[in-house]
Amino acid sequence: MIIDTTEIQTIHSFSRLESLKEVYRIISVLVPIFILVLGITLGVLVIVWLEREISAGIQQRIGPEYAGPFGILQALADGTKLLFKENLLPSRGDIWLFSIGPAIAVISILLSYSVIPFSYRFILADLSIGVFLWITISSLAPVGLLMSGYGSNNKYSFLGGLRAAAQLISYEIPLTLCVLSISLLSNSLSTVDIVEAQSKYGFWGWNLWRQPIGFIVFLISSLAECERLPFDLPEAEEELVAGYQTEYSGIKFGLFYVASYLNLLVSSLFVTILYLGGWNLSIPYTFVTEISDINKRSQVFGTIIGIFITLAKTYLFLFISIATRWTLPRLRMDQLLNLGWKFLLPISLGNLLLTTSSQLHSL
Predict the structure, then answer these.
(1) What residues are paired with 348 via a beta bridge?
(2) Which of the four, 114, 211, 303, 346, has the lowest number of CB atoms within 10 Å?
(3) What is the pLDDT of residue 176?
(4) From CA 10, how far away is CA 284, in angstroms rounded?
């Protein structure tokens, strides 16, 4: 049997080419995910530093100033400390539930970032059901908190987990109805399409002006979803020591800490996308056309400008959330549930009916 060496070389070169293509596909998938995770991590560090500086200013005291210039490395120092602290486990608790709970809380929030457009065509996954995917994934967070509270074998932790589940379920419904109203106005569930629908009339095309009631309900519901004051009932120090976090230490406690800021950041990004025009500059038309011409010539420059605009609007909302935490007192549990079920739910449902009627009337 005669073996043709040229055929063998051709087969080897073809297999090498296929393996290189496979490696390139894997890299092309992993690199955007890595960039997104790195950007989210930096964003969380900035939020922690901002919260400490803003709270210090509101309370007229000195904020962090020793760890790095202006204290910008304080959050990194705290994370390093939590990473090396002893990880304690409750002796009579359910170790599996105790360990899995923080991971579910973080992963469910991290997956939400995959449908957020930071700029034009700068999105990990432009899905036709983007906003509903976010709501579906974020609804898994109460499961992680319940697992953490039950697995701790501590009455304070268990009560904190139950409070967290009741609170998140109560405010998830008005938030979903507000998102559905925006989807009806934009005729799409895609986050990119929702931003594009607001870009037709510049600043006056924002859904903030078309849905002012929905914006207020969404704002309150998102604060409750993030368990921020005045809605931090699941971890009320005066009543529950620290709620579902009572038995946690080390990196597991750090995961809950990171999850709260990740949730705050993703809520602020969705406020920007749904109501504040996303990455659009929203200024007079003559200048907008010049900017759009530059964007067409240089996609990199346009992407950077879009990311900067999105983050500027996002951190404006973050400032409001942080100032609210250090301004308003905590609600009682009955007041929290009454606000969600007796006020926000009927108002958001009425807003949805008005939006549906206006859309049917315009057909």
Answers:
(1) none
(2) 346
(3) 92
(4) 60
For residues 210 and 217, is the Cβ–Cβ distance under 8 A?
A: no
Residue 352: pLDDT band with limits 50, 70, 90: very high
Sole residue written with tokens 């932790």: 157
User: For the chain, how many residues are written?
Assistant: 363
In angstroms, the CA 113 to CA 272 distance is 13
AA identity, residue 181: S
Three-state SS across the chain? CCCCHHHHHHHHHHHHHHHHHHHHHHHHHHHHHHHHHHHHHHHHHHHHHHHHHHHHHHCCCCCCCCCCHHHCCHHHHHHHHHHHCCCCCCCCCCHHHHHHHHHHHHHHHHHHHHHCCCECCECCCCCCCHHHHHHHHHCCHHHHHHHHHHHCCCHHHHHHHHHHHHHHHHHHHHHHHHHHHHHHHHCCCCHHHHHHHHCCCHHHHCHHHHCHHHHHHHHHHHHHHCCCCCCCHHHCHHHHCCHHHCCCCHHHHHHHHHHHHHHHHHHHHHHHHHHCCCCCCCCCHHHHHHHHHHHHHCHHHHHHHHHHHHHHHHHHHHHHHHHHHCCCCCCCHHHHHHHHHHHHHHHHHHHHHHHHHHHHHHC
Tokens of 363: 């057909």
Asked if 132 and 189 count as a contact pair (C-beta separation under 8 A), the reply is yes
Half-sphere exposure for 326 (CA within 13 Å, toward CB): 16
Residue 99 has pLDDT above 70, yes or no: yes
Total-model pTM: 0.85
Q: What confidence tier does 1 reach under pLDDT thresholds 50, 70, 90?
A: very low
Residue 313, token pair as written in the block? 């609007």
**Residue 254, class by beta-carbon neighbours within 10 Å (0-12 exposed, 13-18 middle, 19+ buried)?**
buried
Q: Are 250 and 87 in contact (CB under 8 A)?
A: yes
Structure tokens at 141: 């967070």
pLDDT of residue 349: 93
Of the pLDDT bands very low, low, confident and very high (cuts 50, 70, 90), residue 294 is low
Q: Is the peptide bond before 102 cis (omega within 30 degrees of 0)?
A: no
